[in-house]
Design goal:
Elements (H helix, E strand, L loop, with lengths): L2 H26 L12 E2 L8 E2 L4 E4 L2 E2 L6 E7 L5 E3 L5 E4 L5 E10 L5 E11 L9 E2 L7 E2 L4 E4 L2 E2 L6 E7 L5 E3 L4 E4 L5 E10 L7 E11 L10 E5 L8 E5 L2 E5 L4 E3 L1 E4 L15 H8 L4 H14 L4 E2 L32 E5 L1 H7 L3 E2 L5 E2 L32 H13 L1 H8 L6 E6 L26 H7 L6 E2 L4 E2 L6 H14 L2 H8 L11 E10 L6 E5 L11 E4 L2 E6 L4 E4 L2 E5 L5 E6 L8 E8 L18 H4 L11 H29 L4 E4 L12 H10 L3 E3 L7 H11 L4 E8 L16 E2 L3 H14 L12 E7 L6
Parallel strand pairs: 2-9, 11-18, 23-24, 23-43, 25-28, 28-39, 40-41, 41-42, 41-43
Antiparallel strand pairs: 1-4, 3-7, 5-8, 6-7, 8-9, 10-13, 12-16, 14-17, 15-16, 17-18, 19-22, 20-21, 21-22, 26-27, 29-30, 31-38, 32-37, 33-34, 33-38, 34-35, 35-36, 36-37
Helix pairs in contact: 4-5, 5-11, 7-11, 11-12, 12-13
């Protein structure tokens, strides 16, 4: 073997040895061998769910990546006292003992020793105040009637909702059940009195409970007295007149004989002002159908209404359908009168505001016609500010602080033929109550701003805001055809007096409002007797340039020999029954045209306010101008952009205005009809929303019961709002439902007010449901305030 051969052999042997070692090493390598894993990361959001002192808390941290299992620890900062972090599970739990905001960092470590950390924040709220002890607010239950549906809701207070109710002892009347929500309902099977104990438990972790003993009286099926009262449900008193009482938790009308009475009334039971879809006059049609005319129709109508379940005649109705009606065609009654045989209780309406503004002649008990006032009451909104662009009622709103308004009411009630016949009738006890004013003429007492109307957008303006910006004087009103000798708008004057009495100085008012008035009065000057010309017996046209500019709108008064014969209407026109003309407020040019020439030597003069309303800087000059909107604002409904001082004073004065009207009307009614209930306007609140708090507070002082406007039961929040401001007092509701498609009015669209239904049966069912439902509807305090309904109206009209 050569050296070369020997070297090659040794080389090959070495290679073989190396290959053999490599194969052995490869065979022994671990099968799970892999590169080093990635580091873990914490995936929990850095803002943890909040907790509360003394309330158990649990939250878990989570991670991804790295090698499991993980271990957890506090990296920095401090946990909320009372909380502990579990190192193995990453759970943060415990009972927090201190409130505050806590910041800390949490570290996670995987099984290979790799770590990650993240900062966290945790807010612990203070412990909740201890719940008030659980109690039962229901202390008495409204009575039930055998065979009639019944419902009452038990009331609890304190504790922690939800509440759960159960019967703890005794038995409910057969046919009634108590639900876990506290609803006692069903149809009692028989008359009698049941005593039982109810229990309520709350939803707290310690679960409080309370119990109360209750008594429920189930009366026998009702029989009715002559007025329609339930003889099986007695009031505490029989006064000889309709009155109101609260029996257990439920308000009631009580008949003169002392029996409970739920009023189901109908407005406008009259043949007047009604036509059918062909234009036929209703009065003409009943004359053809009923021999004997309206008296025969009236008796048939009363019988019909009674058979339908109605028991009261509402406002606007014909005198013929009232129990005081007499006619020779009727049989003689026990009083020796030919009175209408079917007698239903009734409500009457006086309209002092509207008719005192008109001041037309009325028919007196001495068989003469006469005006009741020497000067009519003004429509204070006739002088409305040009900066108010909202709704203004066509008939306006009476000047509530004009004493003539209440003089008219007193004279009307005591001397007008209709009222004196009612007062002297032996059937006067059938009169449930007297309303004053149609809701159309009490716009300022309509839907307030606390709730939306149905349909939306019909909330009334705040009357105090309107008064604040109306003209303080009016010389004439072309709408009603009047010239005023006394030009004062007394409600605006009352606004001035209210603020002067409260603040004392104009500086104090300005400081409270952020305003810049210079006086509580007008900064302008009153000009009287400026000569225009002298009559010659033939000249009818006169022109004159006022010497002292500028005359204020509504203030220019035209006089002949000192007697007011005309005035400006705020738009540059002059009005008078015997004249017309114009006034240019800037130039002072006055042009007057008489229908008959002033007599020879007659002095023609003008009175006016120079630089007053809309020009001056006094409180009485306020018209809502742009410069003053910084404190008055522009929102006449909610006063949302008025200063806080303005808003408080507007609401304070609004209550005074309402109290003036309600109080004065009540006084006049009670002076003539001392035993009759005062019911206020035909509706307080309109479009299914209650009046403002200030109006309700005034009404609560003077109204015996209140009529609400709307076609549905008030929502619970509304009922509590009314109870808060009107008080725990009774009210009834107007009902407005239409169903034109299957009626003679199918050519006309549905009414824009009330619920619209497709058929008359659906309409009747809707009324039944509403009338039944309001009798089982209570405030949150457990008071049942509804005492009746009034349906609009007897005969549908397009």
């Amino acid at each position: 073997m050569t050296a070369r051969t020997s070297c090659l052999a040794r080389y090959l042997s070495l290679v073989a040895s190396l290959l053999s070692f490599s194969l052995v090493a490869g065979a022994r390598a671990p099968k799970n061998h892999s590169p080093r894993s990635s580091a873990p990361s914490i995936t929990t959001n850095s803002s943890l769910p909040g907790g509360q002192v003394a309330v158990g808390y649990t939250s878990s941290f989570s991670a991804s990546g790295g090698a499991t299992p993980y271990s957890w620890s506090l990296a920095s900062g401090s946990l909320a006292p009372g909380l502990i972090l579990s190192g193995s599970t990453g759970t943060l739990a415990g009972l927090p003992s201190q409130s505050g905001n806590f910041s800390f960092a949490i570290r996670v470590t995987d099984s290979s020793g790799q770590t990650a950390q993240r900062s966290f924040s945790l807010a612990i709220a203070p412990s909740a105040p201890a719940a008030a002890p659980l109690g039962i607010g229901t202390t008495s239950l409204p009575s039930a009637t055998s065979g009639q549906p019944y419902s009452a809701t038990l009331q609890a207070s304190g504790g922690t909702s939800p509440y759960s109710w159960s019967l703890a002892a005794g038995q409910l009347p057969a046919g009634l059940t108590l639900s876990a929500t506290g609803q006692l309902s069903g149809t009692p099977a028989s008359a009698g009195q049941s005593s039982f104990t109810v229990q309520v438990t709350d939803g707290s972790s310690l679960q409080q409970s309370a119990s109360a003993a209750l008594v429920l009286t189930v009366a026998a099926t009702a029989t009715l007295d002559q007025y329609g009262g339930r003889t099986n449900l007695k009031c505490a008193n029989a006064t000889g007149w309709f009155h109101t009482e609260k029996l257990n938790a439920r308000w009631r009308f009580c008949t003169p004989l002392g029996n409970a009475f739920f009023m189901s009334s109908v407005y406008n039971v009259t043949p007047l002002d009604q036509t059918d879809d062909r234009g036929n006059d209703y009065a003409t049609l009943i004359g053809k159908k009923y021999a004997g005319g309206e008296p025969v129709w009236a008796e048939a109508t009363d019988q019909r209404l009674q058979s339908w379940g109605f028991n009261t005649i509402g406002p606007y109705s014909s005198a013929y359908v009232l129990p005081t009606s007499t006619d020779s065609s009727y049989p003689v009654d026990s009083n020796g009168l030919h009175s209408i045989p079917t007698k239903l209780p009734f409500i009457l309406l006086a309209r002092p505001g509207y008719y005192a503004m008109e001041n037309n002649e009325v028919y007196l008990s001495n068989y003469t016609n006469a005006q009741l006032l020497a000067q009519p009451v003004k429509n204070m909104l006739y002088g409305a500010s040009p900066y108010y662009t909202g709704y203004t009622p066509y008939d306006g709103e009476a000047d509530y602080y004009d004493a003539n308004l209440y003089t008219w009411l007193q004279k009307d009630l005591s001397s007008e033929m209709f009222w004196t016949q009612i007062k002297n009738s032996p059937y006067l006890p059938y009169l449930v109550g007297i309303s004053t004013e149609d809701s159309d003429d009490t716009f300022g007492f309509g839907a307030g701003d606390a709730f939306a109307t149905s349909p939306a957008g019909h909330n009334s303006a705040n009357l105090a805001w309107l008064v604040a910006v109306v003209s303080p004087v009016q010389a004439a009103d072309s709408r009603y055809g009047h010239v005023y000798a006394d030009t004062t708008v007394y409600t605006k004057k009352a606004w001035r007096d209210y603020l002067a009495a409260k603040y004392g100085t104009i500086g104090a008012l300005d400081a409270a409002w952020g305003s810049n008035y210079t006086t509580f009065d007008s900064s302008g000057s009153s000009v009287a007797g400026e000569a225009v010309g002298t009559g010659d017996g033939s000249t009818t046209a006169f022109s004159h340039t006022i010497g002292r500019l500028a005359p204020s709108r509504y203030s220019v008064q035209v006089l002949v020999n000192g007697v007011a014969v005309g005035g400006d209407t705020g738009n540059g026109a002059l009005y008078g029954p015997q004249l017309s003309g114009t006034i240019n407020y800037t130039s002072g040019v006055l042009a007057i045209s008489f229908t008959a020439a002033p007599a020879l030597g007659a002095a023609i003069t003008v009175n006016f306010m120079q630089n007053g309303w809309g020009i001056g800087t006094g409180l009485l000059d306020e018209d809502g101008r742009l410069a003053d909107q910084g404190w008055l604002g522009t929102d006449a409904i909610s006063l949302s952009n008025a200063s806080a001082g303005v808003k408080a004073d507007m609401n304070g004065f609004l209550e005074q205005v309402a109290a003036e009207y309600f109080g004065q009307c009540r006084n006049q009614i009670k002076s003539v009809f001392p035993n009759i209930l005062y019911l206020g306007p035909t509706t307080l609140g309109t479009w299914s929303a209650p009046s403002r708090a200030a109006v309700l507070q005034a009404a609560g002082q003077y109204l015996d019961a209140m009529s609400l406007g709307g076609q549905a039961t008030l929502a619970p929040a509304m009922m509590d709002y009314v109870a808060q401001h009107f008080g725990d007092k009774p009210y009834f509701t107007g009902v407005y439902l239409t169903a034109n498609p299957d009626s003679a009015l199918n050519a006309y669209s549905q009414a824009s007010v009330g619920s619209t239904l497709g058929t008359q049966p659906a309409r009747g069912q809707a009324y039944y449901d509403l009338a039944s439902g309001i009798q089982t509807t209570a405030t949150s305090a457990g008071s049942y305030p509804y005492v009746g309904t009034i349906w609009w109206q007897y005969v549908d009209s397009w």
